[in-house]
Design a protein that fits this description.
With about 250 residues, this protein is α/β, with parallel strands linked by helices. The protein contains 8 helices and 10 strands. The chain has a 5-stranded mixed barrel with strand order 5-9-8-6-10, surrounded by 4 helices. The structure holds S-adenosyl-L-homocysteine.
Length: about 250
């Protein structure tokens, strides 16, 4: 891949990064602004790993700290999301092509979803890095490889048989989607959106403003409707944590 000196790896919740932190060599840690930043190496690549906590403000503050204090020159966000597009199923992975803040609305002064004074609605991820990541995930999803990571029985608990990887738009905002009404409303306004989460587009905006290349990778944990909170905890620990560890290991 394009070589970066120091990569910031970010999740929202501990379960999204604990597996990655356990892979670090020569690990050191530093606390700043209520976050713990873990520095170390994965396959000789220098990384700084942190969980931001949930929501756009928490994520934006954490990314700014990674850039200004730790001098990272690229950022990878890894976590879970609710599926919005009908083709996107629990256990699939979405790699973002671009991200939008669906709860930004300064209309009628500016078009809905546009960030005022920045004049942008969609933030693009790094295309080459995203495509390389897509290829790694496609290989990971080859059934022989996948079953070495997680058994078919384990996957069946979450009704996952042959997961897919998608490339497209991710929408972010400060809401957990747990009703069909929220989901239908978003689909009607932004039909291209593949999944919804609470941090990615904030990370994207900060990276855009600092001119830092970034990618966002999200495993689908739920269908962003009434059943969304049902198996969240076990899913992140048994499926997305394992995917995340493997994706990051193959990245370097
Ligand atoms: N179980 C956690 C809450 C998780 S909130 C707790 O008790 O604190 C959901 C997290 O996963 C957010 O970081 C968000 O980015 C992502 N996410 C997963 N499914 C989502 C959904 N349906 N709607 C919004 N965000 C979702």
């Amino acid at each position: 891949m394009t070589s970066y000196k120091t990569i910031g790896i970010l999740g929202a919740i501990p379960q999204e990064v604990n597996g990655i932190i356990s892979q670090l060599k020569d690990k050191t840690e530093q606390k700043i602004g209520n976050r713990t930043y873990y520095e170390g190496y994965i396959n000789n690549q220098k990384v700084v790993v942190v969980y931001s906590r949930i929501g756009k403000v928490a994520a934006a503050a954490t990314v700014a700290t990674l850039i200004l204090e730790f001098k990272v020159d690229s950022i990878a966000f890894i976590g879970v999301a609710g599926g919005i597009h009908p083709n996107v199923k629990v256990g699939d992975v979405v790699v973002a092509s671009n991200l939008v803040q669906y709860d930004m609305d300064a209309s009628p002064l500016r078009p809905k979803f546009e960030i005022p004074l920045l004049g942008k609605t969609y933030f693009d991820t790094d295309e080459q890095w995203s495509k390389e990541t897509l290829n790694h995930i496609e290989l990971m999803f080859g059934l022989e490889n996948l079953h070495q990571l997680i058994s078919a029985n384990e996957l069946a608990k979450f009704n996952i048989t042959t997961p897919n990887v998608h490339f497209g738009t991710i929408a972010s905002g400060d809401q957990f989607f747990s009703t069909s009404e929220q989901k239908n409303n978003l689909q009607a306004q932004l039909p291209e959106v593949l999944c919804v989460e609470m941090e990615g587009a904030a990370v994207a905006q900060v990276c855009y403003e600092f001119d830092i290349p970034f990618i966002v990778i999200r495993t689908i944990s739920d269908n962003a409707n009434e059943e969304a909170s049902f198996s969240f905890q076990s899913f992140v620990e048994e499926v997305s944590l394992v995917y995340g560890q493997e994706i990051i290991d193959k990245m370097f």
